[in-house]
Amino acid sequence: MLEISLHILDIVQNSMTANADKVHISVTADTGFDTLNVKITDNGVSMTEDDAQKALSPFYTTKTGKKTGFGLAFFKESAERTGGYLKLNVKKGVSTQVEAQFKLSHIDRPPLGDMAKTFICLISLYPDRDFSYTVQVDNRAFCISTEEIRKALGSIPITSPEVTKYICSQITQNTAKITGKTYI
Amino acid sequence: MKSFAELEALREKMKSNIGIRSDDSSNIKISVGMATCGISAGARDTVAQLSESIEKNGLTNVALMQTGCIGLCMYEPIVTVEIPGQEKTVYVKVNRQKADRIITEHIVGGKVVEEYTIGAIAG
C-alpha cells in the first residue's frame, strides 16, 4: 500500500466484517520520540489471545473459500520495515485494537496519505455505523466523529454531498494546521 | 472540532430539499471490491468517483456497497452492477474515468459499457 491511510481503510474493513458499529482511528506523531502511532479500535466480534497471534500470519483467515488474509500482515510488514511493530490488543467480548508503530523519520515509512478520502469512503459504504478519527502531532490535535456530526445534522443524511464535502475539508484543513512543518 | 455552527447552517439550508430515498426492490445495487487487493489497486478512488457521479446525476435509487475479494485480484478494482430484472454486469480495473462512464452510460443511459466488462478485458 502506498499510504498508511489505505492500510487503515483495509483494517477497518476487518472491523466491519466483525460487525463493529463503532470504530475509532487515532494517528499520533511524536517528533521527540520520532514515532508515528496508528491505533484502530472497534467494538466488533473479538478474538481470543490465541487467534490474535494467528491473525498476523498471511496464511490465516476465517473466511471460507480462501486461504489467505494479507491485510494485517502487510500492515505489520510496513511498520516493521521502519523499525516499528504491529500488535493486536484484544479484550474478549469488549474490543479489538490494532496498534502499529512506525519510525516517523524512516525513509521507508509510507506517508499517512489522504485520511479525508479514507474517512469519506467509510461513511459512504457504511452510513449507519459510527467512525471517529483523531490526529495528533506533539501537543496539537484534531478530532472528528460521525456521532457528533449526526447529532448536529438531525434528519439530514450524513452521506449528503454537502456534508461529505464539509467533513473532507475539516479533516484536510485541520490536519494541515496541526502538522505544520512536520511531515506525516 | 471547534464548532458545529457550519453544520447547523447546512441543516437549515437543506431542510427543504431532502429527497426521499426509496428502499424498495427497484433499487440498483453497485458493489465495489474492497478487500486488500481492491484497496491497493485504487478502490478508494473508485468509490469516491461512483458516489460523486451518483450525486451529480441526481440518482436516488442506487445503493453503493462493498464486497470482498472474489479471487480475481489482478482485475481489481472490480465493480458489479445489479439492476433488478437484468443480468449482473461485472466491470474490471475501474478507475475514476471508467466509474463515471459506468454511471452516466449504464445506470442513467441504460446501456452496458461493453469495453470495460470482464468479458471484454479478460475474455
Spell out the key features of this protein.
heterodimer, A: 184 residues, alpha+beta, Heat Shock Protein 90, six-stranded mixed sheet, 6 helices, 26% strand, B: 123 residues, Glutaredoxin, four-stranded mixed sheet, 5 helices, 38% helix
Describe the structure.
The complex is a heterodimer of chains A (184) and B (123). In chain A, 38% of the residues lie in helices and 26% in strands. Chain A has 184 residues and is an alpha+beta fold. Chain A has one domain (4-179): 2-Layer Sandwich (Heat Shock Protein 90). A 6-stranded mixed beta sheet of chain A has the order 3-4-2-1-5-6. With 123 residues, chain B is α+β, with helices and mostly antiparallel strands. Helix content of chain B is 38%, strand content 15%. Chain B has 5 helices and 4 strands. Chain B has helices at 5-14, 36-40, 43-56, 96-108, 118-122; strands at residues 28-33, 62-67, 79-82, 89-91. In chain B, helix 3 runs parallel beside helix 4. Chain B is globular, with a radius of gyration of 16 Å. The termini of chain B are far apart. The chains are: A alpha+beta (184), B alpha+beta (123). At the A-B interface, helix 1, helix 4, strand 6, helix 5 and helix 6 of A face helix 1, helix 2, helix 3 and strand 2 of B.
Strand order of the largest sheet of chain A: 3-4-2-1-5-6
**C-alpha geometry of chain A:** globular
Spans of chain A of 5+ residues with little confidence (pLDDT < 50)? none
Task: Write down the overall geometry of chain B.
Answer: globular
Look at the structure and give the mean pLDDT of chain A. Answer: 95
Give helix and strand order of chain B, one letter per element, not per position: HEHHEEEHH
Percent helix range of chain A: 25-40%
CATH topology of chain B: Glutaredoxin
Q: Please, how many domains of chain A?
A: 1
Q: Termini separation of chain A (Å)?
A: 16 Å
Number of domains of chain B: 1
What is the CATH topology of chain A? Heat Shock Protein 90
Number of helices of chain B: 5
| Secondary structure tally: strands of chain A | 6
Low-confidence stretches of chain B: none
CATH class of chain B: Alpha Beta
